[in-house]
Amino acid sequence: MTYYETQLRKIRQNIYSNQWQLDTVIATRNYIDNNYAKDLNLDLLSHTRFVSKYHLLRLFKRYYGQTPKKYLMNKRIEKSKEHLKSGMTVTQTCFAIGFESLGSFSVLFKNRTGLTPTEFRNEQLSRSNLNSDSGTCEP
Amino acid sequence: MKVTVISIPVRDQEKALKFYTEKLGFIKKLDMPLEGGNRWLTLVSQEAQEGPEILLEPAPNHFEPSKVYQDALLAAGIPYTQFDVDNVQSEYDRLTKLGVEFSMKPTEMGTAKVAVFNDTCGNNIQIVEIL
């Protein structure tokens, strides 16, 4: 066994020994992954795991390094990029990923990517046109 | 400031290019000749071609401390860097079939699953899946 693996096992024993906590945060992340487009309800999840909502938030932050809310927003932005690349309109995308207002979606998107959803979409579409054009221009 | 390039030191750029494209599945992005047969050689991942580039840089051949550091990491099994995959087990199976050698089999580490392989150019590389 390498030095690295030995160290990893030691760390695992020290900080990842609480399987119940691990199961709880992993279930929470899966829940967000599968329901990111819905109005998420962490109360429900905390009840099913017999843990208070605030304890769940703290656990999630501890094991994933970010709050469930931030994780959810990152997930939604990632998904919105896929939708916009595939040609979906900005409005359709906004509702498909669970945002209720176009304004808050645009602000968050610009914040994270440096571009508005419309700018991002236009850039992606012109890029894919360029790629398909260059195919036909090859000598 | 933006992150666009992450460098990985390699002993042989051509061999590294082959390994990283043919086995790992990266795509060559830039390839510019520099002096002394060295190249500015970068790769991108297939699924994020506009994303950050990996620079395969021949530092260990030209700067002794880089070689010493790389050798020490390799011997200790410590990954030089890591790449995200959707499924560590299936990537492990795929790469093993291609003859890639792993120093650490898929191992759960809290909220992640990791494995470590040898890139044949002087480095351990870790693949990681977030659980």
Automatic annotation (TrEMBL), chain A:
- Listed InterPro entries: Homeodomain-like_sf, HTH_AraC, HTH_AraC-typ_CS
Q: Which SMART domains match?
A: HTH_ARAC
Keyword annotations of the record? DNA-binding, Transcription, Transcription regulation
Query: Keyword Lipid biosynthesis: yes or no?
Result: no
Transmembrane intervals: none
Pfam families from the entry?
HTH_18
Which superkingdom heads the taxonomic lineage of this protein's source?
Bacteria
Query: What protein name applies here?
Result: AraC family transcriptional regulator
From TrEMBL, chain B:
**Domain VOC residue range list:** 2-130
Which spans are transmembrane here? none
Known Gene3D superfamilies for this protein? 2,3-Dihydroxybiphenyl 1,2-Dioxygenase, domain 1
Q: What CDD domains does UniProt report for this protein, alphabetically?
A: VOC_like
Q: What is this protein called?
A: VOC family protein
Q: Which organism is it from?
A: Agaribacillus aureus
